[in-house]
Design a protein that fits this description.
The protein is α+β, with helices and mostly antiparallel strands and 116 residues long. It has one domain: Gcn5-related N-acetyltransferase (GNAT) (Aminopeptidase). The chain is 34% helix and 34% strand. It contains 3 helices and 5 strands, in the order ββαβαββα. Helix 1 (41-55) runs parallel beside helix 2. The chain starts with 10 loop residues before the first strand and ends with a helix.
């Protein structure tokens, strides 16, 4: 990601996609350089990525957030994720289901049909 005025990259949002049965799951991560933190960049960029992912049929989102990192927790909440009881490497798994299964697959099918 870059700030609105351009310049060097100041961070990123990453989505790793996996399939769990019929579900397409996005494992999200974000990072903003220390000098640019606190301006809402991670939340804005992650929201754009999630909007794109759901348009492709992703139905579940997840992210691991360290319990001491309130800024990342705010980003996760902004995305609609909620904390679970799962902890891996001292980080809490946050999750959200973003669409019913039928809607998720319909979006993917429509995308393929429109290309054909």
């Amino acid at each position: 990601m870059r700030s609105a005025g351009g310049g060097p990259a100041v961070g990123f949002v990453q989505a790793t996609l996996t399939r769990e049965g019929a579900d397409l799951v996005a494992d999200l991560a974000w990072l903003v350089t220390a000098s640019e933190q606190g301006r809402g960049l991670a939340g804005e960029a992650a929201t754009a990525v999630v909007t794109w992912l759901t348009s492709l049929g992703v139905g579940r989102l997840q992210a691991y957030v360290h319990p001491d990192h309130e800024a990342s927790a705010r980003v996760a909440r902004r995305l609609g994720l909620v904390p679970t009881s799962t902890v891996v490497d001292d980080e809490i798994l946050w999750e959200a289901v973003v669409a019913p299964v039928a809607q998720r697959h319909e979006g993917v099918r429509q995308s393929i049909v429109q290309r054909g």
